[in-house]
Write a structure and sequence with these properties.
The chain is mostly helical. The protein is built from 8 helices and 3 strands. A 3-stranded antiparallel sheet has the order 1-3-2. Helix 1 packs antiparallel against helix 2 and helix 6 crosses helix 7. The chain is rod-shaped.
């Protein structure tokens, strides 16, 4: 989305800049004709039409270099290894210890419902607002605790496999 917007700004700025340059160079007389109806347009106006869009183009390129767009691959990274828990403690208990109250409430609701729920159902069961539920689930997905999959006009939220597996005792 952001990439398309930047490209659109670049194209429009370059078109305006080229038009401004052409008019500046030919002083408004294309095809050998003079200025229509004796209207005198200062050359500085056409120079501004050339320089300002070029400054915009440089600024957009600088912005794109300084703030590169995040790729979907970076956001969808899964944890490279399953966390280990000492003393036979289940991974779910260890994760619940480090979550804040709202995140814990969401995870406990997911566990109670079997590990998979729709986002809108999580919202109603936890009593959280729509935006707060979305933000919590986004943070949990970023950490690899849950995964989200589009499901009509909501998301299907699934608890990570490594949390639901119980550690077998020897």
């Amino acid at each position: 989305m952001r990439f398309r917007t930047l490209i659109l700004v670049l194209v429009i700025s370059l078109i305006i800049s080229v038009i401004g340059l052409l008019v500046f160079v030919f002083e408004g007389r294309f095809g050998g004709r003079g200025r229509p109806m004796g209207v005198e347009v200062p050359r500085s106006l056409w120079l501004v039409l050339f320089v300002v869009p070029l400054v915009i183009v440089v600024a957009v390129f600088g912005y794109a270099l300084v703030f590169p767009e995040l790729s979907k691959d970076k956001l969808e990274e899964k944890p490279s290894s399953v966390p280990t828990v000492e003393d036979g403690e289940p991974a779910l208990d260890a994760v619940l210890r480090v979550l804040n109250n709202d995140e814990r409430k969401v995870i406990e609701t997911l566990v109670a419902e079997g590990g998979t729920m729709l986002q809108k159902d999580i919202r109603w069961k936890t009593g959280l607002s729509r935006v707060k539920t979305h933000r919590i689930l986004f943070r949990l997905a970023k950490r690899g605790i849950v995964s989200a999959e589009k499901y009509y006009n909501t998301n299907k939220i699934t608890l990570a496999n490594w949390l639901t597996k119980e550690k077998k005792k020897p």
